């Protein structure tokens, strides 16, 4: 039976999946859920088949879903996808007018994780644009927030929207095959085909249409979606920004969006072999939206990765959360695969006597911050915002100053310096007990070592003298940690379940480090 939030802990055994999830009425309802798409845009026929027998190929959670009352299934879907262009250069304000150009046939897949019993379904479906930076489909937003979705009875759908995920490309991470779904498992995925990323935006729209019930088969089985929220992390967040600004006003199939770890720019609206229509740097999210958007940023996204270039004020439909002490990737990036909610991950994060160099063996210990825990609070608030119009709490911005630009792919990108306190933690931003009752400096600064190590941030334990000056005793530390945890819960940035596990872990791990 599915467990809704009751204050009980959900304790299960989960094996750690070895892999890397990296940079791997819709619309318009201002005070409640939608009843379905309202767009008058032309609809191409949509074929959905499945569920496909066997297990899907995806870097995702490895926990047993059955004790949560959930099932995992895979569906293929196909049709004709539309590419878009713009008669005018794309502008920084995101107020774009995208027009359809060519169409091309496609066949791709979606992975569905949903409550088995319709009585356990809360009506919300999170549709994630799967990340392909590693060269394979990964689900970072699901991996980091799955416990909240499982607790609340939401469904999740991961979409192979991009060509690399389907057709393959150059391998980006050692050990990850370069052949995509087709190359990795031609027997299962040989029938799939992708015409190129200019068509990815409409392919994503058509996934949402299928979730809403269009097509020849129903990927939610007996469930009926009441709210459909689009999500994307890192490179997928860049594509989601472009989708929101250019495609969403035409397609109108989503009720809200979670933009998770975006950069200062966005993806091209169209690209080779079609006419290139690049996005400017910076690219902000258009402010005339009727649907809620939560922009969720790690410290490294804002600072060294340049996301601060695209900062914009909060509006009635846009909220930005910038989380102090967090990195684009971190300990939870891999530990989260097996997180069943038993508290073991929290103990690993807070045990500074056993720091991790991460799956890429970085040169210094990687970030052990609580990004995942704050993201789960964001997911709950976004669902409520879409459901009844109640916006999330406003988060203070991180304090940053301009830094020298960095060259990435032959392009100069912004770089911002995060202001730090005397213990090395960020000033400003959303606060958690890990930075306000510190035992370490947790940063989103660029790490070094293997490829992508720069994304994993750092953890530097405070020395014994500093700890003694901060806390007269271990009990004094625990009292401060408890106080700051309660403060974060009251502010709405931590959920009670994660707060309970963090407090328990703080009391169990070695105090020094």
Describe what you observe in this structure.
With 513 residues, this protein is of the alpha/beta class. The model is unreliable at 1-41 (pLDDT under 50). Helices cover 26% and strands 19% of the residues. The two termini are 41 Å apart. It folds into 2 domains: 46-277, no CATH class; 307-513, no CATH class. The radius of gyration is 22 Å and the shape is globular. α1 (140-152) links the parallel β4 (124-129) and β5 (155-159). It has helices spanning 140-152, 163-167, 180-184, 186-189, 200-211, 235-251, 299-302, 331-335, 344-350, 371-388, 433-436, 464-470, 474-491, 496-508, and strands spanning 46-49, 70-85, 99-115, 124-129, 155-159, 227-233, 256-260, 293-298, 318-323, 400-408, 411-418, 440-443, 458-461. The longest helix is centred in the last third of the chain and has 18 residues, at 371-388. The strands form 3 sheets. The protein has a 9-stranded mixed sheet with strand order 1-2-3-5-4-6-7-8-9, sandwiched between helices. Strands 10-11 form a two-stranded antiparallel ribbon. 56% of the residues are buried.
List the helices and strands and how they pair.
Blueprint: E1 46-49, E2 70-85, E3 99-115, E4 124-129, H1 140-152, E5 155-159, H2 163-167, H3 180-184, H4 186-189, H5 200-211, E6 227-233, H6 235-251, E7 256-260, E8 293-298, H7 299-302, E9 318-323, H8 331-335, H9 344-350, H10 371-388, E10 400-408, E11 411-418, H11 433-436, E12 440-443, E13 458-461, H12 464-470, H13 474-491, H14 496-508
